[in-house]
Design a protein that fits this description.
With 255 residues, the chain is an alpha/beta fold. Helices cover 44% and strands 12% of the residues. The protein binds adenosine-5-diphosphoribose.
Length: 255
């Protein structure tokens, strides 16, 4: 009996199956409102395009373009005036979007929601997917996880329209980091024929002296197409928490 159990475990419960289970279950949860046959089809297409990007490849040789097909194969909604970018503010930003439903981050879209917090990679010459023994974020630049976030962030930024918002961390000396995903990928993919402006929300805590005059924010402003209207406002973290606890009837009234 134990031999049979071992065979079943190898056949059904291998490392790839765990990842598949998480991806498929998050995908169907996200698409809750779609009719079931369509939902299954979309999630299967997503899984196939996702694994197609890295399975069988060296863990440090997955270019961003490997995820092109994935980005093109899933439905993408327009979020005019509601796109929210972030850098070093992950926790508060997601509390805010989930609590108020006012703005939409990459992690509130299908691909970002499904992959948030996951680790994955392939191996040269193997058809399997792995979730352990994969390169860390900075270990090699072209690792499957980092390339995924780079590619989907570029697509998310390119699709932004109207006035977009970014929440930056006012407790840091350089709230705008040109080497972050926001600074190195998203800002460079803004499409000024779709986007009209960028509103910086500098999230501050009582103890710091966050200011929109910060030189890193001047660098952000310089990096933007002059056609985009730039604005900046210091908002206390406590004010955002208050907004999450008691969401306003009209979005936009939080700060
Ligand atoms: N090591 C491990 N993980 C990292 C590292 C690192 N050195 N750098 C970034 N990450 C991953 C983590 O998962 C982290 O929570 O990227 C996430 C965001 O990193 P930040 O530096 O806080 O922000 P940024 O690089 O600007 O990325 C956020 O990119 O994905 C898009 O739309 C999203 O606007 C958002 C931005």
């Amino acid at each position: 009996l134990s031999i049979l159990a071992a065979i079943l475990a190898i056949g059904l419960g291998g490392p790839g199956n765990d990842l598949r289970r998480v991806v498929m279950s998050r995908c169907t949860t996200f698409l809750e409102r779609e009719d079931p046959p369509n939902r299954r089809k979309i999630c299967q297409t997503l899984w196939d395009a996702f694994t197609g990007a890295f399975v069988g490849r060296d863990q440090c040789e997955v270019p961003l373009e490997a995820y092109d097909q994935l980005v093109h194969s899933v439905p993408q909604k327009d979020h005019c005036h509601r796109t929210l970018f972030w850098s070093k503010t992950k926790h508060v930003v997601h509390q805010f979007t989930q609590g108020t439903k006012c703005l939409v981050t990459l992690e509130d879209t299908l691909l970002g929601f499904v992959m948030d917090g996951l680790t994955w990679c392939g191996r040269n010459g193997s058809r399997k997917t792995f979730t352990t023994g994969c390169p860390r974020w900075t270990q090699c630049p072209l690792n499957p996880v980092r390339s995924f976030w780079g590619r989907v962030s570029a697509a998310f930024a390119a699709s932004a329209c109207g006035n977009a918002t970014v929440m930056l961390n006012g407790s840091l000396a350089t709230p705008f980091d040109p080497n972050s995903t926001f600074g190195s990928i998203e800002v460079k993919n803004f499409n000024s024929s779709r986007m009209t402006g960028l509103a910086v929300v500098l999230v501050a805590s009582e103890s710091d002296s966050a200011t929109c005059e910060n030189s890193s924010l001047q660098n952000l402003q310089k990096a933007l197409d002059p056609a985009l209207k730039y604005s900046c406002k210091v908002v206390q973290q406590s004010q955002i928490q208050g907004c999450i606890a008691d969401p306003p009837l009209a979005c936009g009234k939080c700060w």
